[in-house]
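pasting input
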Amino acid sequence: MKIGVFICHCGENIGRTVDCPRVSKACAWLPGVEVSVDYKYMCSDPGQNMIKKEIIDKKLDAIVVGSCSPHMHEKTFRKAAVAAGINPFLVEITNLREHCSWVHDDIEAATEKAIELVRMSVEKVKRNQPLTTIEVPVTKRTLVIGGGIAGIQAALDVANAGYEVVLVEKEPSIGGHMSQLSETFPTLDCSQCILTPRMVEVYQHPKIKLMTYSEVEKVEGFIGNFTVTIRKKARHINEDKCTGCGECITKCPIKKKAYNSFEENLAYRPAVYVPFPQAVPNIPVIDKEVCTYYKNGKCSMCVKVCGREAIDFGQEDKIVSEEVGAIIMATGYKLYNIDKKPDDSIYKGYGEYGYGKYKDVIDGLQFERIASASGPTEGEFKRPSDGKEPKKIVFIQCVGSRDESKGFSYCSKICCMYTAKHAMLYKHKVHDGEAYVFYMDIRSGGKMYDEFVRRAIEEDGVKYIRGRVSKITEENGKYIVKGEDTLAGMPITIDADMVVLATAMIAQPDASVLAQTVGIPYDKHGFFNEAHPKLRPIESTTGGVFLAGACQSPKDIPESVAMASAAAAKAMVLFGSDKLEREPVVAKVNAELCAGCFLCKKVCPYGAVEVRELITRDGVVIREIAYVNEGLCQGCGTCTASCPSKSVELAGFNNEEIFAQIAAL
Amino acid sequence: MSSHNHNHVHTIADDIKDKTFQDVSLCYQCGKCSAGCPIRYYMDIAPNKVVRLIQLGFYEEALKSTTPWLCAGCMTCSSRCPQEFDLAKFMDAVRETALEKGVEIKNKDIIKFHEAFLNQIKHFGRAYEVGLVAEYKLKTMHLFDDVDSSPGMLLKGKLKVLPHNIKDKESVRKIFKKTAKK
Amino acid sequence: MEAILKVGYFPGCSQTGTAREYDISLRKVIEKLGASFDEVKDWSCCGATSAHVTNHKLASALAMRNVMLAEQQGIEDMVAPCAACYNRLVSSQYELKKHPEVKLEVESILETKFQKDVKVMNLIELFTKIGTEKISENRKHELKDLKVACYYGCLLVRPAEITKFDDAEQPTSMEKLVELTGAKTVDWNSKVECCGAAHSIARRDIVVELSKKIIDDAKRHGANLMVVACPMCHTNLDMRQTIMKRVYPEYKEFPVLYLTELLGLALGMDEKELGIDLHTVKFNYNELAAEKAAV
């Protein structure tokens, strides 16, 4: 076997600490090495051309490149090798930068080490097998989990490109939190006015299969080939027959037993309901918990008034299965609740703000509903406790955010902006009202964002007080807010009519369960993890699953929309061809040696090991053995390390190759 | 306040860190402590400002302030601080450091009270209230405060005229000796 | 013959002095409930008030001396009726656990080695240990004319991760005990506000303002009695009302009882046996009930 060694100086990066010409000369003497050269920038065009020339001229079988980390240029050098006619997996990269020159000072010692490292790679490459990329088929359909603005945007982008989308939303209607908002910053657009056209577009789109009031129960398969099990919860309304006329809702006698979660519990809803008038789809749901029929069978008012016989009390949940090639997570967020949950060590609640016992101490979404023209007060500012117009409102930022003791260490990003917005909306409607904002910092880093906050202060007369609030107590219907202005160095006490808390943006309570169902990692707060925080913020570490919106980290609407379109683009990259290429660095089980202990199956983090029967040609079953699904295997090597009989080997890093490297030391 | 700097000089901030096991850099000056402090109105410098002075290295101003001496040790600040900075313990450390460094303290009455209190413990093992009050009055010359309540208290048996001695007074005196400042 | 539950007892300096009635009523009440005290022999000052503000090593050593004595006496859990003593004894043990180098230093000062923790209870935890059903079983009078503001003060509930007792902002454990006597409780805003603490001697003006604020809040919420579980708080809230009257001529007196005195009344004892007549502000249940009826 003829091997070529190419040592790169990487400019000063390697050359400063490792004497590259000397390494190259020493390696020329290694057994099997036909040619050994060094060059300043091996990854450059002249460098690559040098490699190609040497391969062709000297008829090399394999090459070793001493350079930076394989993460950087393995692909580059493999391409060069292919161009010159050798298999890309007969290329070994020796890391002389991160593993050598960047971590040592002593030139002599570093150079000796470099020679050792290259010797190891030469011994390995002698045992390398030529490998071919694995091809898997692709189902050109996308699953989008979550029907908020991010999910809607992603679904539309994929569908408009001509691919089918399955959009699953757990609430009865799509729209998410954006549909609850009154107006959006920094333009003060009416939120539903800009959102509902998109919602209708989703509903009417021929390529989008919309499943509301549904949840994903199981995800099997791998990138390009997922099988998803979805539970369509029973609405007890026949969707095909219902026209959305709303008669059942109007006539339902149970009017005050259940709170409307869309209205953030500021209003009631009947037992049969749609969450809001512009709901998509406009098909109601019967709440079994409060409906009289399910208690004693005595009421069927809705059946009586329904002209289409659409009520179906006995309807069951339906389980459906969908085949998709890509999954986009768009499950959004929830707001931190300041109530105390007795057995919860994470959500401690805020006792100094009343643990939620004060009716007029509300959070941001409740304020949105009060401000909204379609809300429980029809857009008029009325206190939840007595319906009076508040003349003094105090807004408190960072409740639960940047707070290690009772909340979360992170900043929720959007609160500075929406608090300014809230204060402005209030001042626009109540001209003689006073608005105070207690803040620690103002984080307004978007386009026209800082100008928006200045507008609140300079044009609308909102008073900003730099400091936190220590305690809120109630005295005769007024809320005594005790805070401090650290800029003036003075305590500030305000007797407010209403207090709005900008509570932390947290992950959905079942986010971790869903993440485990789909098979993606999540952080300690429940936010889904991106593959790389800087350069790969849209992909999760699991192939084929992409992230969009606040489920990955707190963010505002433009960022969520941008991320959703990016996720859609990523999904469509998979659909660009009929087959997906995968790196052949996967594990393979030697069927003869495998005893069927399945330790590998237990340790595999990707669920890539299957149980197969080992059968003779006559169909007699000898025993069960392990089999690695090439599509799922990520080549981590955990199974290889765990196998007691060494029956599993990793292609490209098999035992022979690794032991040769060690022996060469 | 880097502690891996080879040329590091031991500062007052380090003194305080040694006593409290927490670094003042934890405090991000949100002011919640000052907002909830019941004694705030009587203090010359807000509690969070005392921390700020130590953070910036203005040690003398911090140590001379009346604020730590007026601190009642109610722990409202410590229990509400979002960074879990124990401000009450920090104030204790500032008081102790001010005494160690011999800084001129304005709250002379309060110092004398503490001296009188600790003297009682040193000699009798327990706080002997008549002795404490007597010593405090002599030190401060506020001879006629509490005069209205004292006869009543004596009659009710609430003020023991003679101190109660513990048996092993020596062990308590030893504690004082071993922890005395050099 | 019912078994007597024995509990360790760390009185603290004020129990023999200004808080004499606290000690009297406490001992009488636990006797009626079938428990007895094993007082820490030759206990000394716990180091509250002045030690921790001037010398943190002295403060640790003074507190741990008593823990050492209790451990040597075989006491596993003990009650410290003064909230400051309770807080010092619990905090010092917590500090020694968290910082082993401090533990070594204190052991060297006291010339001992700490083997076991001593669980220190505050007054309210004591009754939970004895068993609240015993209060209901032995109740002789229903104190239904009382509307009580339960005052916890600072050191029973803070710092929350050290005392691990009730909620630091909206506690309710004292209310539960008070309601066993038949009295009603009020929800009010100053349960855990500071009374001024040890400024009682050197800065009485602060104490007068802070304590008056608390009493005013209790009155505003419809209470006719305040109940406390700390002798420092009681001094400030009761004895200092003399000065409040002087500074604020229109100020009206407001009775403040120890929790043990209230329980004692419910268990059938009278004001004199419980030492309630030692208070500055007079309290007599029958008179208060008569007043209420007259209104």
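fyi Chain A has a mean pLDDT of 94.
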